[in-house]
Amino acid sequence: MSEFRFAFPACVVAGKHRLTAEDIVLLRKHAFPEGIRTSQDVVAMLALNNSCPEKCAEWNAFFVEQIAGFIVHYTYPQGSLDEINVAWILRMFTTDGVVNSALELELILHVMEISANVPDELRALALDQLRLAITDGVGGYQLSRAVDRKNITRQDVDFTMRILRSIAAGGVIALSPAEYGVLHQIEQATLPGANHPHWAGIMAAVTLRDRPEPRRSRWLRVVDDEPVAKAAVA
Fold first, then answer.
1. pLDDT in tens, the chain (234 residues)
2. Which of 39, 73, 185, 218 qualifies as a cystine partner to 224, CB 3.0-4.6 A?
């Protein structure tokens, strides 16, 4: 059991069954007046997310905006991601490679969208959520899919391009072996004739990158792992 304790007004909000728009205004004004800036702020956000079973749309937007902003803009390397950021994201928001909820998947996607650099393994993880939805019927993306089908839908096409758009240039999508492998696993798990026609265009544009992206190494961790880990299991 975590020993984390909320300060006011988060302690009042945490005792509620449902987070409302009024609660988010209260949190923005009093609990996080400058936004999420420290590891303790992250602890509080994760604990709030876990303590309230029902959330309003305003909470979802607040959670994604603030946690993603902290990861990308207030931890090293500022404005970007490296392998340590990615390792922390995987540890906090996935179980055996499966993103735990639709909200946490949206957080990961937004992190990718606002980061100047996205390591290959994070894009591969995001793409693999589509494979898991199709082959195993599990994960945050499965929960957000409009239909439960074993073929590629327009929603799946849009999801895939949201992940790949930043590396698509001149009609070519150059992928690492990990990303390339996931896309072909998805292709093999579906019937080409039943897939959305735009999927064929994606696969035609895909090419295997001939050299790996340089890795950025550092010693500094993304956040204080211990309290954040405790909040995640509270």
1. 445 566 666 776 777 889 999 999 999 998 899 999 998 899 899 999 998 889 999 999 999 999 999 999 999 899 999 999 999 999 999 999 999 999 999 999 999 999 999 999 999 999 999 999 999 999 999 999 988 888 999 999 999 999 999 999 999 999 999 999 999 999 999 988 899 999 999 999 999 987 666 555 554 444 545 445 544 444
2. 39
**What's the gap between Cα 2 and its chain centre?**
24
Residue whose C-alpha is closest to residue 123's, from 174, 68, 169, 56:
174
Question: Can you say how many angstroms the Cα of residue 31 is from the centroid of all Cα atoms in its chain?
Answer: 24
What's CA 126's distance to the chain center, in Å?
7
- Which of 39, 34, 30 is closest to 7 using CA atoms? 30
From CA 6, how far away is CA 136, in angstroms rounded? 38
Comparing C-alpha atoms, which of 182, 183, 172 is closest to residue 210? 172
